[in-house]
Design goal:
Strand content: 25-35%
Order of helices and strands: HHHHHHEEEEEEEEEEEE
Structural class: alpha+beta
Distance between the termini: 34 Å
């Protein structure tokens, strides 16, 4: 395991979306297998939010933080909750140099977009309840359809928690606005939409961009599914096929 200082910096970079894919995968493997490490990630995240609210982040870190924590609704709730717990003497509105950050919060609050990025694996507290953790991550490549045999992605969902679906967008090199729709295919071939995202931004994934979404495992019942990544004008960027298998 990395040294404490280096680990903390790595987790901070991970939360801000700056950790490369290989290091992020190593970190994710550890927190999936080590509850204490997962709890520690949550602590680092709370410290990161406090540093932002009290003006201790650098300029680039502020931009990275706001791109995630002010635009993703669930993350913004964490920031708002932490802001509400600040003593009056530390409240952003009373701090010198916070005019710009406060204006950014107001702009973000009016934006009709969210960047799913969230590499939000810290079981956040929302409205007094613990959000289910991400227990399964699935990478999906476009173009595979039912009948492609072994090439089609198949998996079993955990009985509780969330499933992260990463939709690869080959050829896309820069972040782009999009939406994700997931539909179940019934016995006569009709599609029934079971889940859709709000507006979000793609994130780097290998040589291209990915649209990443977290779905409650209870939503994905046994059967065949089609996923679509849609452009802001609702045209289809890519189509994906996957199958949820019954529990063994």
């Amino acid at each position: 395991m990395l040294g404490q200082h280096k680990s903390k910096e790595s987790v901070k970079a991970y939360l801000l979306g700056n950790l490369d894919e290989r290091e992020a995968s190593v970190l994710e493997e550890q927190y999936f297998s080590d509850p204490a490490f997962l709890e520690w990630i949550g602590k680092v995240e709370r410290e990161l939010i406090a540093d932002y609210l009290q003006g201790r982040l650098s300029g680039p870190e502020i931009a990275q933080f706001e791109a995630r924590y002010l635009e993703i609704p669930d993350l913004k709730k964490k920031v708002d909750a932490a802001r509400g717990r600040l003593p009056d003497s530390l409240h952003p509105s009373t701090q010198i140099g916070w005019q710009f950050a406060l204006a950014a919060v107001l702009v973000a609050g009016c934006a009709i977009s969210a960047w799913f990025l969230l590499r939000d694996h810290s079981s956040p507290q929302i409205a007094g309840k613990t959000r289910p953790p991400i227990l399964l991550a699935v990478h999906l490549t476009p173009g595979l359809t039912k009948g492609d045999g072994a090439r089609q992605v198949e998996f079993i969902v955990p009985p509780a928690g969330r499933v992260r679906l990463s939709f690869e967008l080959p050829g896309l090199r820069s972040p782009a606005e999009c939406r994700v729709l997931v539909a179940m295919i019934d016995s006569d071939g009709r599609r029934n939409t079971v889940w859709h995202s709000g507006p979000l931004k793609t994130e780097p994934g290998g040589a291209s961009q990915e649209a990443r979404v977290d779905i409650d495992s209870a939503t994905l019942r046994f059967g065949d599914y089609v996923g679509e990544v849609l452009a802001p004008d609702d045209t289809i960027r890519e189509t994906y096929s996957f199958r949820v298998n019954p529990p063994r």
